[in-house]
Design the sequence.
């Protein structure tokens, strides 16, 4: 069995810059720069044959490249008990279409995706017992964060390996989008 998801890699300059924000919040388990990504479709555990079917379905994607815009910080959970801190990505028709095509490719391979509504974001940290005021202070202190648009010229199939320190992600294959 192999644990997979379809997503977008971040340019190393942006990943390093975002990862450098990862301090000063007790109870946060920060995602390393090499693991920062945007998930389009979580697949879960599948056998090697199904993984191969997903690969072939993704290889047939035919969408134009586009740019995505990182914007703002937020959290999942409520302001009293947040569990995830994230960097947002501006919603766009191109990004929504790409996520829908990733879900279709996975479904075509016979896998039923988890059904969560697509919410474009980059997970920065998992939070455990982080004080709400400290989380709000982090978000406020970094509210001015800006980054240039990120070129999205390929989609990646990632393997997720669970370890005691958290998940580690490896790109198994990249699928190019057509040039702008």
Sequence:
């Amino acid at each position: 069995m192999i644990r997979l998801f379809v997503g977008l890699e971040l340019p190393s300059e942006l990943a390093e810059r975002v990862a450098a924000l990862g301090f000063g919040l007790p109870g946060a388990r920060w995602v390393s720069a090499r693991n920062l990504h945007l998930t389009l479709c979580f697949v879960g555990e599948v056998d090697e044959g199904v993984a191969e079917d997903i690969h072939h379905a993704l290889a047939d994607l035919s969408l134009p490249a586009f740019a995505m815009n990182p914007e703002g910080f937020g959290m999942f959970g409520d302001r009293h008990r947040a569990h995830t801190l994230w960097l947002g990505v501006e919603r766009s028709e191109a990004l929504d279409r790409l996520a829908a095509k990733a879900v279709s490719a996975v479904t075509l391979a016979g896998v039923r995706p988890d059904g969560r509504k697509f919410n474009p974001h980059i997970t920065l940290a998992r939070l455990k017992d982080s004080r709400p005021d400290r989380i709000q202070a982090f978000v406020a202190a970094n509210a001015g964060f800006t980054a240039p648009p990120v070129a999205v010229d390929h989609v990646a199939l990632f393997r997720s390996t669970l370890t005691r320190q958290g998940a580690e992600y490896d790109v198994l294959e990249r699928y190019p989008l057509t040039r702008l």
